[in-house]
Amino acid sequence: MDRLLKFIVFAVLLTFGWSCQKAPLVQHVTTFAHDAWWPDSVITVDVHVTDTLAVYRVAFQIRHSEDYPYSNLYLFREIRSETQTEYQDTVEVRLSNAQGAWYGQGVGALKTLELPFKQAGLRFPKVGNYRFRFQHGMRDTPLHGMRDFALTIEEEPTE
What we know:
Blueprint: H1 2-18, E1 26-31, E2 36-37, E3 43-49, E4 56-65, E5 72-80, E6 85-94, E7 110-116, E8 128-136, E9 143-144, E10 146-155
Antiparallel strand pairs: 1-10, 2-9, 3-8, 4-7, 4-10, 5-6, 5-8
């Protein structure tokens, strides 16, 4: 029950964070059973894009416990359109500094770190369906201490 309550609080906080703005195009949260992210557990989020002129802010949040054994996390990231891979990379996410202090926000043993997918906004080249894929690139099977992974895509306001 305690885990369910924490998840609800996390979801409510994400909701309040964007409640004053236009509704996001996507807001997707994946929760890992037993705080363990398996390497073959690829997170996929499908997005239908209708506006190719809009610029989108794409961000992901990583929520982990203090039981996470490393100071970083390698992520394989990919965006696929209906016909091809539009973007693919590997990124190192720093979760703590050299002294072991976590960068994320949170009370107690859980920390949440939000990062942009790219520094600049993202524009989709054509109307259609896109699939965002995330997979951890760490050697642990499974990777312990990982609680949730969230992806948010929202249209940037025009000036």
